[in-house]
Amino acid sequence: MARNRSFNKRNILIVVVVILLVTMVLTGRLVYLMIFKSEYYAAKAQELHERERPIKAKRGSIYDINGVEIATNKPVCTISVIHSQIEEPEKVIEVLSRELGLSEEKVRKRVEKRSSIERIKSNVQKEVADRIREYKLKGVMVDEDYKRYYPYDSLASKVIGFTGSDNQGVIGLEVKYEEYLKGINGTILTLTTAYGVEIENAAEDRIEPQPGNDLYISLDVNIQKYAEQASYKVLESKSANNVKLIVMNPQNGQLYAMVNAPEFNLNDPYTLINEIANDYVGETISDEKLNELLNGMWRNACISDTYEPGSAFKIVTTTAALEEGVLNLTDRFFCPGHKKVEDRIIRCHKAGGHGSQSFVDGINNSCNPVFIEVGARLGAENTYKYYERLGLFSKTGVDLPGEANSIMHKLDIIGAVELATMSFGQSFQITPLQLLTAASAAINGGTLVTPHFGIEVRTPDGRVVKTFDYKTTENVISAETSETMKQLLESVVSDGTGKRAYLPGFRVGGKTATSEKLPRRTGKYISSFIGFAPADDPQVIAIVLIDEPVGIYYGGTIAAPVIADLFDNILPYLGIEEKYTEQELKDYDIGTFEVPNFVGKTKNEMKDLLKIYDFGDIYPTGDGDIVIEQFPLPGEKVNRNSALVLYYE
Ligand SMILES: [Zn+2]
Question: Which of 80, 154, 157, 311 is catalytic?
Answer without folding.
Answer: 311
